[in-house]
């Protein structure tokens, strides 16, 4: 009996671990300038997501060109790189169930 309960708990915890997602979220220069970093962090924490990494950085154009390389052929690419390098940003990695969907909302 105890063995079967432990087996079920093991399967459940494995399923929950597999269901956990990670998402990259970056607060853009205007969000940092407007003082929204704390409020954004509070929203993710209120949904019980775990902050795995966070850094306050002023990205170089070179770094941004690598980060947004998949958009390099788009007409808005130069403006995007210029805007994102105009001030500090806060890139973060969050972990939790449905964190990708929540981050998009």
From TrEMBL:
Q: What's this protein's family per the entry?
A: Belongs to the NDK family.
Pfam families this protein is in?
NDK
**Biological process GO annotation list?**
CTP biosynthetic process; GTP biosynthetic process; UTP biosynthetic process
Q: Which UniProt keywords apply?
A: Kinase, Signal, Transferase
UniProt-recorded name of the protein: nucleoside-diphosphate kinase
Species for this entry:
Henosepilachna vigintioctopunctata
Cofactor(s) in the UniProt record: Mg(2+)
InterPro entries the record matches:
NDK-like_dom (IPR034907), NDK-like_dom_sf (IPR036850), Nucleoside_diP_kinase (IPR001564)
| Signal peptide extent | 1-17
């Amino acid at each position: 009996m105890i063995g079967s309960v432990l087996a079920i708990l093991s399967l459940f915890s494995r399923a929950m671990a597999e269901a956990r997602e990670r998402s990259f979220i970056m607060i853009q220069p205007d969000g940092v300038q407007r003082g929204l970093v704390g409020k954004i962090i509070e929203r993710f924490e209120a949904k019980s997501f775990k902050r795995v990494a966070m850094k306050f950085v002023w990205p170089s154009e070179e770094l941004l060109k690598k980060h947004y390389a998949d958009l390099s052929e788009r007409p808005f690419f130069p403006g995007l790189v210029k805007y994102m390098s105009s001030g500090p940003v806060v890139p973060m990695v969050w972990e939790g169930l449905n964190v990708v969907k929540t981050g998009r909302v």
